[in-house]
Amino acid sequence: MQTIQELYTYEILTKDQPDLIEKTAECLAKTFIGVEVAGKWVQEPIIGYALKLPYEDFYQFTKEYIEANVHQGYCAVALDQEQNVVGALVGDTNVFEIIEEDIFEGTFADMNIVMRVLEDIDERFLEDYNNRYGKDMEDGEVLHLFLLGVIGEHNRHDIVQNLGDVLIKKATEEGLRLVLAEATNPKSMRVLEKYHGLTKYVNVDGDFIVHKYESNENLSSIPPTVADGIYIIVKEL
Prior knowledge:
Layout: H1 4-7, E1 9-12, H2 18-33, E2 35-37, E3 40-42, H3 45-50, H4 55-69, E4 75-79, E5 85-92, H5 111-133, E6 142-150, H6 156-173, E7 178-183, H7 186-196, E8 199-200, E9 210-212, E10 229-236
Parallel strand pairs: 6-7
Antiparallel strand pairs: 1-4, 2-3, 4-5, 5-6, 7-10, 8-10, 9-10
Helix pairs in contact: 2-4, 6-7
């Protein structure tokens, strides 16, 4: 029987790997829009369930995100023996950009809803970061884990653990202060908490930073049994 080490290998993408970048975007887009993996339906509640964004549009968004940030070295992939991407965890170390205007059009216009929700919690985090540390957040201080997806049929939790280990080790070595993610559902939150110690961020007033789905007319169709909101989760390094 093959071990997990024999089934998959792990590496950090570089800008000189366009084929792997495309495969990574495909892997992530499938898991967000919706795909059956090992007999179970995998789907992100906002993008796939509530808004039903088109696969091709989200694939292009994901690909462009990776291409823009891959040089930072925080795009990790799991590869099977045929060099197919079966898992990916990609992020960046940029300061959150609060645009406050719609930037997507046409069939991808509903992505503006997603961005407004993210900006809502990110803006509150930036304000609390300033209160907590006495300074504004700067590039290179926080590892922002942005997209996580696994389509491997076997050892799915091991894939998540190994992908996170690669990036968090690098962030620690580079002296970053925090690892942060916006968790849109309890499943991803539990996985990142179990394997990497990320927990719900509590601001200086003792409150979670969360955007509740029930209060958003575009996302209120998400059943509370699936997810109740999107939370900032963090780990100090």
